[in-house]
Amino acid sequence: MRKIVLASTSTLFGQEYLAYLKPVMQQLFTGIKEIVFIPYARPGGISHDEYTGRAAEAFGAIGIGVKGLHTFEDPAQALLHAEGFFTGGGNTFLLVKQLHELGLMEALNAEVEKGKPYLGTSAGSNIGGVNMQTTNDMPIVYPPSFQTMGLVPFNLNPHYLDPVPGTQHMGETRETRIREFHTQSNIPVVGLREGGWIAVNGTEITLQGGLSARIFKAGHAPYELESGGNLALL
Amino acid sequence: MRKIVLASTSTLFGQEYLAYLKPVMQQLFTGIKEIVFIPYARPGGISHDEYTGRAAEAFGAIGIGVKGLHTFEDPAQALLHAEGFFTGGGNTFLLVKQLHELGLMEALNAEVEKGKPYLGTSAGSNIGGVNMQTTNDMPIVYPPSFQTMGLVPFNLNPHYLDPVPGTQHMGETRETRIREFHTQSNIPVVGLREGGWIAVNGTEITLQGGLSARIFKAGHAPYELESGGNLALL
């Protein structure tokens, strides 16, 4: 049975890394001693080792060991032997480029579809969508493809931000950007506010975290889905 | 002699389309009766015709005719015969994809290098940089390349936004995103605030518009360049 959590953000304002997700992590990774961490998104350009250290600290607090995928000579083999996965946030273009170039996107997908638990935050959640084309990140590198795992039948927009009333800034709002995406694609988009996450249990896909999410479908007005709501049939 | 204006935005808050740029347009396009408008960025998904109509209205007010590049059977020939160019804003990925797929990126570059005046706003300014990898736009389509014209020896970040003091949002600031770009590239980046523009006259490249810009160079702390400052030797 598939067990997946795709969170908008790793960190809530004023909190420790992954703190608000600890109960979710404990449930998702029940019975698991060690996970593989995928550090390729490198937030702020930090090293893979540093980033893995951060994840190890947070998982250590719930008694789970962490190995960085970058430390394995054969990362595809490492995915095959792993018990579970966490992909951290950062730059989605970097993450997707590296996963495709190392031939790992489909390998990771296959392991998660087998039922190995997967946690993603931010960029790590984006790759659970059909493609990365609703990321907020800058295209700092050129990936060979924008396709991602498609663990859910829609795209995500993590760190979703509502339009700021009365702003004088003329740059596009998040809603405008997603509407532009829908001139090119019919894939639904879940605007996932910080503090919210998507939980997949087998074929069930629900919104969690106590916040509503903004749902965008091509040709329809966007609407709010309350926490607990069904995302399986968007 | 090269004559180029790359503006952060087409429109200032509460003003008409291109209103604040009219004196600049009059000077840039002196003696020119008709320009070719490049509408491919399609802001908000509007049609090429609608978008060209907007540009025609603004240029009509200063006595200059506008033809949309999309109306020509052979757009490369249209660039060759044009007197000058304006590329409007919208989605940079759409714009760059279409220019590359139609074989127009280098053709446009060649005409501008010959001395035909070029105005860009937002996405239309991004393509004046070395590449589009510091755009704020969503990757709603997959372009065959991120390379752009390189009319200036740096990249632009239009609609540049300073970090918001006291925000509780955990998404990356613009400065963080540009710093991440500099883990991958040594190309300098000009963070161009709304109301500012870059003026190229021959080999002179200066900042204009009365606002400072934020300059980002790999391995250096970002700094402010005052309006009037030299951008030729970043």
UniProtKB/TrEMBL annotation, chains A, B:
Keywords, ordered alphabetically: Dipeptidase, Hydrolase, Protease, Serine protease
GO terms of molecular function: dipeptidase activity; serine-type peptidase activity
Enzyme Commission (EC) number: 3.4.13.21
InterPro entries, alphabetized: Class_I_gatase-like, Peptidase_S51
Domain of life: Bacteria
Single GO biological process annotation from the record: proteolysis
Group of enzyme by EC: hydrolase
PANTHER family cross-referenced by the UniProt entry: ALPHA-ASPARTYL DIPEPTIDASE, PROTEASE S51 ALPHA-ASPARTYL DIPEPTIDASE
Protein family: Belongs to the peptidase S51 family.
Protein name as annotated: Dipeptidase PepE
